[in-house]
Design goal:
about 15% strand; endoplasmic reticulum; Selenoprotein F; signal; about 140 residues; four-stranded mixed β-sheet; Sep15_SelM_dom
């Protein structure tokens, strides 16, 4: 299913509340739909995305990321626990930060360590998290 965004756009706060902060490009909504097959969610996604201007936009990468989560809520996110315990060491540019009451999210960082994008990952499977990090976080970019 290939779609383009409708004229209606939601505010970034509304999008974050829906969990769509990280789906910045409308092509991501198409990928999302392949997994969830839910037209209402697809519609919400399209209200929160920006059109892909060209292929280079989807190749945006980041120098690092912070996986932010509330330690007390980790029990509800076994996929994220599995990533932290078994896979995190493969991603030296990804740091784990425990913040009280924070939903699981990835905070993507630029070369200066500044936050560029925040992505809610509440319902992500471990393999999707791995695939995303392999695509979006530059290898060997950690300097520490």
């Amino acid at each position: 299913m290939v779609v383009s965004s409708s004229g209606e756009q939601l505010s970034s706060k509304q999008c974050e509340d829906l969990g769509f902060t990280g789906l910045a490009l409308c092509s991501d909504c198409n990928t999302f739909y392949e997994y969830v097959k839910d037209k209402e969610l697809m519609s919400d996604c399209l209200k929160c995305c920006t059109e892909d201007s060209d292929d280079s936009v989807s190749k945006i990468t980041y120098s690092g990321a912070i996986l932010e989560v509330c330690m007390r809520k980790l029990v509800f996110y076994p996929e994220i626990v599995g990533f932290i315990e078994e896979e995190k060491s493969n991603f030296p540019a990804v740091k784990v930060q425990y913040v009280f009451n924070s939903p699981p999210k990835l905070i993507m960082l630029d070369d200066e360590g500044q936050q560029k994008e925040t992505i809610r990952i509440d319902n992500w499977k471990r393999e999707h998290l791995l695939q995303f990090l392999r695509r979006k976080v530059q290898p060997n970019s950690a300097t520490s």
